[in-house]
Amino acid sequence: MSKPLAPIGANTVHVVVDMQRLFAEETGWRVPTLDSILPNVRRLIDHRPERALYTRFVTPPGISGARGVWQSFYRHWPQVTQDRLSADFCDLVEPLAALAPQEAQINKDGFSAFTSPAFAPALTRLGCAVLVLSGVETDVCVFATALDAIDRGLRVVIASDAVTSFSLDAHRAMFDHVLPRFEHLIDLATTDAILAAWK
């Protein structure tokens, strides 16, 4: 994060990852620090609202409706499947819910945004070459989306002060140990630095 952020421009898309009630409220998946990143997520959205996409992690109807190994995963988290939890918990948190057009909301059933069949076409429509990522969780859905984006040749910028995780140890480990290994592929920058670079 010490090197200056190279300019980003009109081909940039801001992806707000999973800023949902599912992770903001007492569901078993609550991210206690989610509220702390909301102001910076909002600043990034407000900078170019028409260039924002919002992913929503959608859980299966029940354990048996999950794909493959995800059934084992949901046996540990049965309380978040749709037969146990109201669909409203997939909604974005306020004030983001009021800002996000329906057509900009992308439902996914896996960690990476690219697990949604609608995500890559949405990027294509927006002429995307650069992804700015914010949201939750740093070490899970944000990171998975970043790696998939890199594999597709996209430049990735992670907003370091607009991402967080249930596990702050894992969040810190990402910035201290994991993400530095991708220094030639992922840019890490503060919200201020991103806004200054995004012309």
| Main beta-sheet annotation | 6 strands, parallel
Shape, per Cα inertia axes: globular
Structural class: alpha/beta
Instruction: Give the averaged pLDDT, no decimals.
Output: 97
- Element string (H = helix, E = strand): EHHEHHEHEHEHEH
Q: From the alpha-carbon coordinates, what is the Rg to the nearest angstrom? A: 16 Å
Strand order of the largest sheet: 3-2-1-4-5-6
* Low-confidence segments: none
Q: Quick one: how many beta strands?
A: 6
Strand fraction: 15-25%
**What is the count of helical runs?**
8
In which range does the helix fraction lie?
A: 25-40%
Descriptive labels:
single chain; 199 residues; alpha/beta; globular; six-stranded parallel β-sheet; 6 strands
What's the short story on this structure?
With 199 residues, the protein is of the alpha/beta class.
Structure description:
The longest helix is centred in the N-terminal third of the chain and has 14 residues, at 34-47. Helix 7 links the parallel strand 5 and strand 6. This protein is globular. Helices cover 34% and strands 19% of the residues. It has a 6-stranded parallel sheet with strand order 3-2-1-4-5-6. With 199 residues, it is of the alpha/beta class.
